[in-house]
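tool_call: predict_structure(chain=1)
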Amino acid sequence: MAEVDYTKASVCLFDPVHVNLRTTRYALHEIGFREIDSHSNLKEFEKAIRENSPALIVAECASPGVDILPMIRNVRQGKVMPNPFVTMILTSWIRDGAHVRRAISSGADDVIVRPFSTAFAEERIRTLIRSRKPFVVTSDYIGPDRREDSKRPSDAPVVRVPNTLQATVEGDEEALARAKGWINEARKTVESERVRRLAMRIVVAMELQADPATARTAAMDLADVIRTARELRETLEGAGRIEALQVAEALLEQVRAFKRKDECSASNFRLAKELAVGAYAAYANGESIERSQDEIDKTVATLRKRLLSRDGHGGGALSGATLNTAAAG
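tool_result:
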C-alpha cells in the first residue's frame, strides 16, 4: 500500500464562522495538509474552487443563512469545476437526521458531525482515499452509492469515478497523467445516465397522468415535471447536442402548457412522453429508451399500486421524491 503524503494535496475549506474555520484549518494542518485555501464567503469559496480545482473540498453545511448544498450539487453536475468527482467532505454542527440526510443527498462523499477529533477526521479521509465508493446517477442525485448490497437492484448502474485525491497523496504520477482522460470518460458516462434518468422520470409521470385511474388518485406535481424538463434541456445544452436540445425545448414548452387545465388531456400527456423519449433518442444517436422499458414498467406498476391503494384516502400529489423512491426499488 503506497505511503500517503498529504502535503501534495490542495484543500479548499469553507466555514462562514471564523473561529470554526480556524479550528478546521488547524485540524487539517495537524493531519498533514499544508496547501489549505480558507474562505468564509460562499461566492469567494466557489470562485476558488472554479479557478484552482482542489484535490479536496471541506465545507460547513449547517450555518444559518448559508445554504451550501446547491453548490455541492452543481459541483457534481459539472457546473463548477472540471472534475465533478472531486472528494468532498461536509461538516455540520446540526445532528438532526433530516439535515444530515439532506447533506448526504447533495452528493458529498461524507458528512462529519461536529465536534470531532483530528484523529477521527483523518480516519474518515483515509477511508475516502483507500475505499471510495462508486457513484450512482439518478434524475436528481449524483454521488456515492450508499445502498446496501441486499437492497441494490441487479441492473442498477454504478460508475467507477476517478479518485484524484488518492492519486495525489500517493504520488501516483501515472494515474494523474491519465486523470484528464479518465475524468472526461466518467463525465460522459454520468451525463448519459443522467439524460436517461431525466427522460424516464417524465415518461413515468406522463404514463400515470394518461391513465384515468391514477390521474384521478393523485394530482401531478407540475412544478417537479417542469423542473425535470428544464434540467433535461440544460444537460443537453451543456452536452452541445443541438438536435436533442431542440426536442427538449419542445418538451419544456409542452409541460409548461399543463398549467392550463384545457391542455391537460391524455393526448397531450402522451405527446410529452413522446418528446421525452425523442430527446433521449436524439442524444443517444438513435438509441431507443426501450432498453429502459422494464425499469419504466416496474416503476409505473409500483406507483400505480401505491396510488390506487390510497384511493379514497385523500390522494395527493405525485411528487418527484415519490418517483425516485419507486424507481430505486
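agent: The chain has a mean pLDDT of 87. Proceeding to next step.
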